Amino acid sequence: MARTLFGTDGVRGVAGEKLTAGLALALGHAATTLSPAPAPRVLIIRDTRESGPMLEAALAAGVSSVGGEAVLGGVLPTPAAPIAIKRDGYDLAAVISASHNPFHDNGIKFFGPDGDKLSDAQEEAIESALAAAPAGPAPVGRVVRADGMLGGYLAALRARFGGLDLSRLRILLDCAHGATYRAAPAIFRALGAEVAVLADAPDGRNINAECGSTHVELVAEQVRAGGHDIGFAFDGDGDRVMAVDRTGRVADGDELVALAAIHLRRAGRLPGNGVAMTVMTNFGFHQAMRAAGIEVATTKVGDRHVLGALRNRGFTLGGEQSGHIIELGFAPSGDGVASALLTLEALGGRDLATARVFEKLPQQLVNVPVGGTAAAVASAPAVQAAVSRATGRLAESGRVLVRPSGTEPLVRVMAEAPSAELASDVCEEIAAAVRAAA
Q1: Dihedrals φ, ψ of 334, to 5°?
Q2: Beta carbons of 209 and 217 less than 8 angstroms apart
Q3: Handedness of CA 276, 279, 282, 288 (dihedral sign)
Q4: Does residue 329 contact residue 389 with C-beta atoms inside 8 Å?
Q5: C-alpha pair distances (Å), 174 with each of 73, 318, 332
């Protein structure tokens, strides 16, 4: 059966409407029932949304109602889950978060015993189990609260980045009033940095509100005004990061992966001499990696696809323009805090303002609303003819991308070219064809 509840990153929706306590209980029940372990130990962590405790309690009830042990880890960044799975041998982990979404949304995503997010097939099995009739009486499990989970996550960061000396750096962190509000300042201070913090007072409703990686203008302005050497902005669940140099210029995921890739290759720590990036990655990134002798595997949008490519190709580093960066040498998940530390490791004391690895090509993006099926419109002969003409105009100097949205009735048209004018012209030509085909 096709998934109807699970999307690209778990089950997500407005808390109390789509994502109710009843659904959370049912998800906990179904996921635990499907675990091959006789009495599964299930870690549950969350971000700072006001609906988090309600969903945590319901999910834990679902786990314990079929004999599982629900271990409540409290507020932690998403990547703490796969790290804890590997460290403590959990059979399953659930993260309650809607990432960069506003507070009224929430979500539940599951990680398996290998630390990876569940596959599409596993999520389909959970959905099927939701509709199944109860099998009869079940053993009663238990719910326990874990101590020291934050310390365990910080210890993992220290084990990986303990050699970094940040004592000469003035760093500004924007924690988005989210899951990194304790962890991020703690590790940067432990490594010697002088740390100032924005958005570190969560009240349940201010998560991602005009702050964090989706509102990076806040940290950019404050870095300039405060004379900081560098700034980092995380998202609500801590699996993304954007960097800001001392001038206030934003360095996105493309630039941070490029810095890390060249650094790791020089250090002999880039298996396969390759990285995995999505189709949205800037063409300038591809040119820079080609010049550096680093292969780029291109995937569909989504960290699940990036991780799959890393596994298939034997690479360890990849990510998305949004700042979702995976480095398998640390964890099989995007980790904003670890990615920020990897950036500083890659810089090796250099100034981010002068250490650019590549210049971005001007990019134009247009979202075209469509009345029919977005995939059918995107593949229409007239649209494909427009794409072919645009590709011919750009030759080797740029690229175009037309893709249907996976979540909205839109066709996304993107063009990159040596000049903003050409990118805009090419993008509009294709967008016109999409409108006509819609």
Answers
A1: -60, 140
A2: no
A3: positive
A4: no
A5: 23, 23, 24
Q: List strand residue ranges (DSSP E) for 160-284, in order.
A: 170-174, 194-198, 230-234, 241-245, 250-251, 274-278
> Rounded to whole angstroms, how far apart are CA atoms 420 and 141?
60
For residue 188, what are its two tokens?
Answer: 């940067």
For 393-431, write each residue's pLDDT tens digit.
998 889 999 999 866 789 999 999 999 999 999 999 999
Provide the angle, in degrees to the nearest 10, between the axes of the packed helices 420-437 and 381-394.
170
The Cα 425–Cα 270 span in angstroms is 38
Q: Token pair for residue 146?
A: 């874990």
Give Cα 161 to chain centroid, integer Å: 21
Higher pLDDT, 135 or 11: 11
Please identify every residue annotated as catalytic. 99
Write the pLDDT tens digit of every residue in 285-301. Answer: 999 999 999 999 999 98
**C-alpha closest to that of 221 among 253, 250, 255:** 250
Residues 6+ apart with CB under 8 A from 193: 166, 167, 169, 170, 171
How does DSSP classify residue 295? Answer: E
Which element (helix H / strand E) includes 58?
helix 52-64
pTM: 0.91
pLDDT single digits (tens) 18-59 = 999 999 999 999 999 999 999 999 999 999 999 999 999 999
Query: What burial class does residue 70 get, using C-beta atoms within 10 Å of its C-beta: 0-12 exposed, 13-18 middle, 19+ buried?
Result: buried
Residue range 218-229, pLDDT digits in tens: 999 999 999 999
Please choose, from the candidates 425, 426, 429, 433, the residue with its C-alpha nearest in 3D space to the C-alpha of residue 382.
433
Nearest-CA neighbor of 436 among 414, 417, 411? Answer: 411
CB–CB of 169/145 below 8 Å?
A: no
The residue count of the chain comes to 438
